[in-house]
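Good morning,

Attaching, inline, the backbone tokens for the sequence recovery test we're adding to the shared suite. The designed sequence is right after.
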């Protein structure tokens, strides 16, 4: 579908980051202009690395013509043959599919009758809790299920153990036909999954080398699951491309993702080490989860490129408007001055619900009557924004004209670029995750995996746990 770009343009409102609005804890125009060189250096870094090294993701909106056609055809076949579609993956191989599915499908998609869904029921299994695996197997019929195993490394223990469980069940039930129930999305050149896929004859999609997990939603990792549930993946890519083009300006005041990165960078330098992501739309609830991984794994780093120990990064927190007004906003208005709150606002919801009349005798309730929930949710967002402003707290708002494939593509690209710019400002490697490796290696050692004997010895020499500290 072709979207009108002007009508669907994402807007970034940073009024309430500024000292003029919120007072002493805000950022001044002078601070912004003094950081202009920092912004330019970050912009230049991103431009020079586009499509190279681990920045292959910048080109995904431009270079996937044939892949998209293959995905659309595969998705159509899946819809014709299967009642369930299950993603097996974790981290960047799961959060993108979850967030896009929830943003662009019916909020109770799996509960709809098939005649309305017109596509398989959809599950993303991103944990290895045995109860969850057992529960999944209780609600799906594996003989009517397509499993999409997604792992770039082709080695992640969680995903590979899920794969082994599922393929064993499928083989026992279906014999050689089992291979038609598994699609592997993985690296073309490395890892075990591609070797298994080739040997077994699975349909495969590739994750490009320069696309890391948390930057992979716009490649087959996200596009195939989205297409299966009839999400307009071309619209998603068009929106991402539009945002990418909007961000090709080298001055922060003209480049929304660069400005968003610069403001977070300045705020971080002033001790705001928490980034709260608070969409005011249930459909965007899981976008906050996706953002949390992107921001945390990309920017939480011990050393910078110069080898200095920096221990940087903001702790991302997911929050949902209005639900978390009744849970977290007390802390945001009165707790420590260490947070930046990012609201995501939606101008036009896809449904309109009117609160009926009928409370005339109760003035404290009656003021709601005749209004819409649409008006109420957006009014509460404006009111919360005001409460934070009055308390001198930093906040900004990303505004989507509505939630559709195009605006969601814009939003994903906005966050990816913001993250890359902010990482460049911090002079860190945005695209690695060395802090995750230690836990993975310790798991291998504890599982007695060959090659991890030294790690096992290291673990054995860790401080003993003392009973006196367990009560
Ligand atoms: O962003 C990342 O690189 C990670 O979160 C990975 O996506 C996650 O560890 C899963 O890796 P893989 O896709 O190799 O199974």
């Amino acid at each position: 579908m072709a979207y009108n770009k002007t009508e669907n343009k994402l807007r970034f409102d940073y009024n309430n980051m500024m000292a003029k609005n919120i007072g002493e804890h805000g950022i001044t125009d002078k601070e912004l202009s003094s950081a202009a060189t920092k912004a330019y250096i970050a912009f230049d870094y991103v431009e020079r690395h586009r499509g190279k090294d681990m920045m292959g993701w910048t080109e995904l909106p431009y270079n996937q013509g044939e892949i998209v056609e293959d995905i659309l055809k595969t998705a159509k076949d899946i819809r014709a043959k299967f009642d369930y579609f299950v993603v097996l993956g974790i981290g960047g191989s799961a959060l993108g599919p979850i967030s896009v599915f929830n943003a662009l499908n019916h909020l109770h998609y799996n509960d709809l009758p098939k005649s309305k869904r017109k596509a398989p029921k959809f599950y993303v299994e991103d944990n290895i809790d045995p109860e969850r695996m057992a529960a999944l197997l209780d609600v799906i019929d594996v003989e009517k299920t397509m499993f999409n195993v997604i792992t770039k490394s082709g080695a992640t223990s969680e995903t590979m153990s899920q794969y082994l469980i599922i393929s064993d069940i499928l083989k026992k039930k279906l014999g050689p036909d089992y291979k038609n129930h598994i699609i592997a999305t993985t690296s073309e050149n490395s890892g075990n999954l591609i070797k298994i896929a080739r040997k077994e004859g699975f349909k495969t999609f590739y994750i490009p080398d320069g696309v890391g997990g948390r930057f992979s939603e716009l490649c087959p990792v996200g596009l195939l699951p989205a297409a299966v549930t009839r999400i307009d993946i071309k619209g998603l890519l068009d929106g991402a491309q539009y945002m990418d083009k909007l961000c090709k300006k080298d001055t922060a005041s003209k480049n929304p993702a660069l400005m968003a990165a610069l403001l977070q960078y300045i705020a971080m330098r002033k001790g705001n080490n928490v980034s709260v992501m608070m969409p005011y739309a249930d459909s965007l609830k899981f976008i906050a989860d996706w953002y949390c991984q992107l921001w945390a794994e990309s920017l939480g780093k011990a050393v910078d490129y110069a080898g200095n120990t920096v221990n940087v990064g903001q702790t991302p927190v997911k929050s949902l408007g209005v639900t978390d007004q009744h849970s977290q906003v007390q802390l945001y208005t009165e707790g420590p001055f260490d947070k930046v709150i990012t609201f995501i606002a939606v101008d036009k919801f896809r449904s309109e619900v009117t609160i009926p009349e009928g409370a005339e005798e109760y003035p404290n309730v009656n003021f709601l009557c005749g209004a819409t929930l649409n008006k109420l949710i957006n009014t509460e967002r404006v009111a919360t924004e005001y409460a934070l402003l009055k308390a001198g707290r930093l906040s900004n708002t990303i505004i989507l004209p509505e939630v559709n494939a195009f605006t969601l593509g814009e939003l994903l690209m906005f966050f990816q670029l913001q993250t890359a710019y902010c990482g460049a400002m911090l002079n860190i490697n945005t695209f690695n995750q060395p802090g995750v490796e230690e836990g993975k290696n310790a798991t291998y050692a504890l599982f007695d995996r060959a090659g991890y004997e030294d790690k096992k010895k290291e673990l054995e020499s860790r401080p003993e746990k003392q009973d006196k500290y367990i009560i």
